[in-house]
Amino acid sequence: MSNKDRTQEQINKGHRAKVLLEDPLLKQAFDDLLSIYREQVFKTSYKADDERLMLWLAYNMVEKVKGHLESVMLSGKLAQKELNDLVKKS
Fold first, then answer.
1. Which of 24, 59, 76, 81 has the fewest CB atoms inside 10 Å of its own CB, making it the most exposed?
2. Are 17 and 42 in contact (CB under 8 A)?
């Protein structure tokens, strides 16, 4: 795969990640899950360490998925800028 192909693939993935992050259904799903996990953590008994840990892990996994999509989107934007700069120099 050539450098140009890799750059274009990165741009395409970045665009797809942006579309996902802007999708109302996915945004609502992220918000709902974060809210549910946050609420449930505070409803646990002080003795429920395992349950709190699982809720904390679930909350953080949602954040990691969202963060990964944001990273892919930003990488795509940077790749697009690089490609634009190369075209200008040509």
1. 24
2. no
- pLDDT band for position 17 (cuts 50, 70, 90): very high
Residue ranges covered by each domain of the chain: 3-85
pLDDT for 85:
84
**Could you write out the three-class secondary structure of 28-90?**
HHHHHHHHHHHHHHHHCCCCCHHHHHHHHHHHHHHHHHHHHHHHHHHHHHHHHHHHHHHHHHC
pTM, 2 dp: 0.84
Task: Compute the C-alpha angle 67/73/77, nearest 5°.
Answer: 140
Three-state SS at 14 = helix
